[in-house]
Amino acid sequence: MKALLFFVILFPVFFAVSQRSYADSIQALRLEKQELILGSNKVLKTEELEKIISLDFFPTDTTWIKMVTFKKDKGKPFEMPTSTDRLPKYRRVGYVYFEHKGETHQLTLYKNLNLVTAEFKNYYFLPFKDLTSPNESYGAGRYIDIDINLKKNKEFLVDFNAAYNPYCAYSYRYSCPITPKENHLPIRIEVGEKIPIKLP
Question: Which 3 state secondary structure label does DSSP give 29?
Answer without folding.
Answer: helix
